[in-house]
Inverse folding.
């Protein structure tokens, strides 16, 4: 293991260019995460609600066409 040969010198202190106000960063991060989480839940629920309405609606037909069991000729589980 190597040992230092010189004593540490006093380096003039410079301002750190990467100083962060961690409380603000945490607050903004949690706010954005909450907004994205709520928007994701709303999007997921809105797609499920559209398919559960009347069976004759065009959106329900498009949702059912994605399911393999509703393909012409059967093929259900």
């Amino acid at each position: 293991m190597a040992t230092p040969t010189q004593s540490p010198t006093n380096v003039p202190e410079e301002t750190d260019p990467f100083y962060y106000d961690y409380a603000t960063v945490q607050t903004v991060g949690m706010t954005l995460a909450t907004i994205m989480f709520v928007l994701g839940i709303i999007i997921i629920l809105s797609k499920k609600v559209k398919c559960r309405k009347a069976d004759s609606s065009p959106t329900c037909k498009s949702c059912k066409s994605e399911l393999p069991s509703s393909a012409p000729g059967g093929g259900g589980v």
Remarks:
- The mean pLDDT is 74.
- The radius of gyration is 29 Å.
- The chain has two helices and no strands.
